[in-house]
Fold this protein.
Amino acid sequence: IANAHCQIPCGIYDDPARFQMLREHITTIDKAMHQIVELSAAGEKNYNQIVRWVTNKDDHADQFIDIAANYFLAQRITPADPSEGAVFL
């Protein structure tokens, strides 16, 4: 169990909006990966569409990394009080 804290010591922990954003990025990355595989397996390949999906996937992966690396700074993660119970995404 750990409490995550943002870059500015604002006192807001486990921000539900950030977790929702992460879930949306994961969904988009997953869809992009499936589209890339599907388009790559086609007989006549549409390389423009493949490049668009790869670019989109990479953009969302970068945004995910930015949230994880900057919003939830490792040096600001502190162990939670075990009496508070577990927190799940």
Q: What stands out?
A: The helical segments are 16-41, 47-71. The CA atoms of residues 30 and 86 lie 27 Å apart. The beta strands are 2-3, 78-79.
